[in-house]
Design brief:
The complex is a heterodimer of chains A (about 110) and B (about 120). Chain A is mainly β and about 110 residues long. Helix content of chain A is about 0%, strand content about 50%. Chain A has strands spanning about 5, 10-15, 20-25, 35-40, 45-50, 55, 60-65, 70-75, 85-90, 95-100, 100-105. The radius of gyration of chain A is 13 Å and the shape is globular. In chain A, strands 2, 4, 5, 6, 9, 10 and 11 form a 7-stranded mixed beta sheet that branches. Chain A has a 4-stranded antiparallel beta sheet with strand order 1-3-8-7, with no helix packed on it. Chain A is built from no helices and 11 strands. Chain B has about 120 residues and is mainly β. Chain B has strands spanning about 5, 10, 20-25, 35-40, 45-50, 60, 70-75, 80-85, 90-100, 105-110, 110-115. In chain B, the strands form 2 sheets. In chain B, strands 2, 4, 5, 6, 9, 10 and 11 form a 7-stranded mixed beta sheet that branches. Chain B has a 4-stranded antiparallel beta sheet with strand order 1-3-8-7, with no helix packed on it. The radius of gyration of chain B is 13 Å and the shape is globular. In chain B, about 40% of the residues are buried. Classes of the chains: A mainly beta (about 110), B mainly beta (about 120). The interface of A and B includes residues 34, 43, 46 and 100 of A.
Chain lengths: ~110, ~120
């Protein structure tokens, strides 16, 4: 099973600042990596798939990069609605696995 | 518009089974995979398995092998996930998600809380 490790566990950022979230895979997942945002009481929302393709309706301030084992989600200028938990997911190998999440909180 | 609407919350006793439904609308049900993911309170996301609604083919995470069954009724565009031999650790919100092989899981159900308690 591929283990996905996200860092940091918590990220404190001021509105308008840039946020950089990391995700590392225990072995290569090629570009088969997605990012999700989840707010309390809600289902996960797909942000990025294929490591860098924004999902339908996702603002351009969200961008993804990386391949192989190292991936990054960047939020260029945090808005109030962006404070949430973010998960990475690999779907290159079964079982599909998720990272433990990064909580982005208001500084 | 695409929607996945899940069945309501369930309370079950240890050892019982639960069957959660996921009704799809706004697209051709047999054209996209359905994945099931669960989340215990305050915890992360855990993939349980996958079903191809067209063929009925399934694939389960090893952790759930022997306890989970994913089925569908194409006439009503509904997928089902049944989990048996429930224990307290199965208490979680269960989600269905429409998936593609290239990772576009852009549509999720609202979640179904399953509580296992004696």
């Amino acid at each position: 099973e591929i283990v996905m490790t996200q860092s940091p566990a918590t990220l404190s950022v001021s509105p308008g600042e840039r946020a950089t979230l990391s995700c590392r895979a225990s072995q290569s997942v090629s570009s088969n990596l997605a990012w999700y945002q989840q707010k309390p009481g809600q289902a996960p929302r797909l942000l990025i798939y294929g490591a860098s393709t924004r999902a339908t309706g996702i603002p351009a301030r969200f961008s993804g990069s990386g391949s192989g084992t190292e991936f990054t989600l960047t939020i260029s200028s945090l808005q109030s609605e962006d404070f949430a938990v973010y998960y990475c997911q690999q779907y290159n190998n079964w079982p599909v696995t998720f990272g433990g999440g990064t909580k982005v909180e208001i500084k | 518009q695409v929607q996945l609407v899940q069945s309501g919350a369930e309370v079950k006793k240890p050892g019982a089974s639960v069957k959660v439904s996921c009704k799809a609308s706004g697209y051709t049900f047999t054209s996209y995979d359905i994945n099931w993911v669960r989340q215990a309170t305050g915890q992360g996301l855990e993939w349980m398995g996958w079903m191809n609604p067209n063929s009925g083919n399934t694939g389960y995470a090893q952790k759930f092998q022997g306890r989970v069954t994913m089925t569908r009724n194409t006439s009503i565009s509904t997928a089902y996930m049944e989990l048996s031999s429930l224990r307290s650790e199965d208490t979680a919100v269960y989600y269905c998600a429409r998936g593609t092989y290239y990772g576009d899981w852009g549509y999720w159900g609202q979640g179904t809380l399953v509580t296992v308690s004696s």
